[in-house]
Amino acid sequence: MKPNTYHLLGVTMIFLLILTGMEAVTAAPYWVKPGVYIEYIAERYDPYIQYLNGKGYVSNISKATSVIFYEYNGTVFRILTLNDTKIRFRVLEISNNLATIGVRIELNNVSILTLVKKNTTPPKFWDVGTSDVIIEPPHDPSIPEDMVWYKIFTKRAVITGVYKLRLNDSAVFDLNGKFYGHTGLWYQATEDWNPSLPFIVEPGNVSYYIQKTGSWKRSFWTPYGTFGPPVGVLNLESKGGTIEVSIGRIFKIFERTVSPNSTSTVLFDPNSGIIIGHSPTEFTFPDLQAIGVIFGFFNDQRGAYLNQVKRDYSTWSGLLLYGTNAEFQKVKEVKFESPSSQLKYVFMVSLGALALTGVKRIIGGKSR
């Protein structure tokens, strides 16, 4: 056998080994590229509001599509949205192993609450032209006397931000390099996420870890379209703790106890990996935390109406996939019987390459 034959065999084996190990190279799906956007929505649905009114619910919180705790320029706000909540993620740039992601959160018919010192105003991210402001004393002995409640009512508010996403393992970081967990934009069952790392890190001392992945043998409706069957299911579990949000370390505006072994579910499309449903009111995805959304509840009221009134569970009431320009394609996966069969496959193809080389030499010999 000539040296170039050995070279051909070596190249063939290396190439095939690379092909069989491609899934480990990156956790990001094939469709992730600059310019791609993904949108989610928690939509207002009037029949659901009528249903709540009939049940005697009067608080705005029960009728909100989202309740967000947001830190902006050092000030923490509670934002309650009564009309649609829309969130768009866009891939701005990819450099080496890092993607830069831009986020835009559009909130409609909004009430905003924060604490500020007397005779000062908080930093603004809302539509000033359509807003009304009410300033009230706190009426709480735990709050210093020089502080006041600052309440804003506005037709529209927009939150924007940028964060980094590491492509080889889908880890989310803010621009200062702080780690928040796994992205909420996609998940692939073939990922090699380190099980010792939290999938989601909440404010306080609560984290969620991957418990298991599976599938539902039924379809799931989103405003973007219907997925499945099957639908990929990612189950997360927490060790318990307390979620806390405070305003300026002065006043605890939100507190929630999470029991040990509490679980939650994320749904994804097994073909593309895109996450199609964020769990209702359970946690805040790292992609939002990395731009200052400390914690948030999201309630798609159409889904809530179908679940609670119609007993229809073809969708649910969390954030739902609303739109994307990602180009999806069905990929046929080659199933191997066992890990060793991949090596057998490489070996057999390599033998085939050798055989072809031998035939070429024989034919070449006969032609001389």
Describe what this molecule looks like in 3D.
The chain is α+β, with helices and mostly antiparallel strands and 368 residues long. It has one domain. The chain has five helices and 20 strands. The strands form four sheets. Strands 1, 2, 3, 4, 5, 6, 7, 8, 9, 19 and 20 form an eleven-stranded antiparallel β-sheet that branches. α1 packs antiparallel against α5 and α2 (46-55) crosses α4 (301-308). The two termini are 19 Å apart.
**Number of helices, where a helix is a run of at least 4 consecutive DSSP H or I residues:** 5
Question: Mind describing the biggest β-sheet?
Answer: 11 strands, antiparallel
Helix proportion range: 10-25%
Which geometry do the CA atoms define? globular
Number of domains: 1
In percent terms, what proportion of residues is strand? 35-45%
The beta-strand count equals 20
What is the element string, with H for helices and E for strands? HEHEEEEEEEEEEEEEEEEEHEHEH
Mean pLDDT: 79
N-C termini distance: 19 Å
Structural class: alpha+beta
- What does the radius of gyration come to? 26 Å
**Uncertain regions spanning at least 5 consecutive residues:** 2-25, 331-368
